[in-house]
């Protein structure tokens, strides 16, 4: 019994230490990618910044594209827990809204928060995709995931509520939602043009309501 408890404690401690190492590596990579860009950031630089060996970076997370992917995944949901965005309480309650205007307001709030966290790193990915084939694949995957989220969850819910404009094709509704929630749009308006996150959230809500919803 005592041995079993010791083994469990040791296993838990090792898992916690491994998680801490992974978090330190991803945090270091995120900072360096944003400061230096994807190309100039080396695995050795990430290892030095995280206080680990080069080998540990690879065994704990992976190469540069894997580092970028994990960092973006964590920034997307706001933490390191393996819970999909659609399963998060705030998103679930938003998608259950019976008022389409309130649903899109909640979506705008969530998207503004997401893009505030990952916008700068997403720009790193866009730049890297023009040079690195694996980064291109990652960018395409993330774009497709966002479009799938709109096509399978957001737009069907608005359609279920009878809220979509009658003259709007479903695929066009998906494209509109996908385009407006693009992190690149957030970066252009907030980081480049100086909008506040609240102003972006207001604009996003107004824009998608105007373009997606039938007149009340």
Automatic annotation (TrEMBL):
InterPro entries with a match to the protein in the record: Homeodomain-like_sf (IPR009057), HTH-type_TetR-like_transc_reg (IPR050109), HTH_TetR (IPR001647)
Pfam family, one: TetR_N
A GO molecular-function annotation: transcription cis-regulatory region binding
The keyword Calcium is annotated on this UniProt entry: no
Record bears the keyword Flavoprotein: no
SUPFAM superfamilies associated with the record: Homeodomain-like (SSF46689)
Annotated PROSITE patterns: HTH_TETR_2
Coiled coil regions in record: none
Domain HTH tetR-type: 19-79
Highest rank taxon of the organism: Bacteria
Location of the DNA-binding region in this protein: 42-61
Alphabetically ordered keywords of this record: DNA-binding, Transcription, Transcription regulation
Protein name: TetR/AcrR family transcriptional regulator
Organism: Kribbella sindirgiensis
Lineage of the species this protein comes from: Bacteria, Bacillati, Actinomycetota, Actinomycetes, Propionibacteriales
């Amino acid at each position: 019994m005592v041995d079993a408890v010791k083994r469990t404690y040791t296993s838990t401690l090792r898992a916690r230490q491994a998680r801490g190492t992974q978090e330190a590596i991803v945090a270091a990579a995120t900072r360096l990618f944003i400061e230096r860009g994807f190309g100039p950031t080396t695995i050795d630089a990430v290892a030095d910044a995280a206080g680990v060996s080069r080998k540990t970076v690879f065994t704990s997370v992976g190469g540069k594209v894997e580092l970028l992917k994990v960092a973006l995944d964590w920034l997307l949901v706001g933490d390191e827990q393996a819970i999909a965005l659609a399963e998060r309480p705030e998103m679930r309650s938003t998608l259950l809204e019976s008022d389409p205007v309130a649903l899109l307001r909640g979506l705008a709030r969530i998207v503004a928060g997401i893009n505030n966290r990952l916008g700068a790193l997403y720009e790193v990915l866009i730049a890297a995709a023009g040079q690195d084939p694996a980064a291109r694949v990652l960018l395409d995957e993330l774009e497709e995931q966002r479009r799938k989220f709109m096509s399978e969850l957001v737009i069907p819910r608005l359609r279920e509520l009878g809220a979509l404009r009658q003259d709007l094709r479903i695929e066009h509704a998906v494209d509109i939602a996908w385009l407006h929630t693009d992190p690149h749009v957030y970066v252009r308006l907030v980081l480049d043009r100086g909008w506040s996150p609240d102003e972006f959230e207001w604009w996003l809500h107004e824009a998608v309501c105007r373009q997606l919803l039938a007149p009340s």
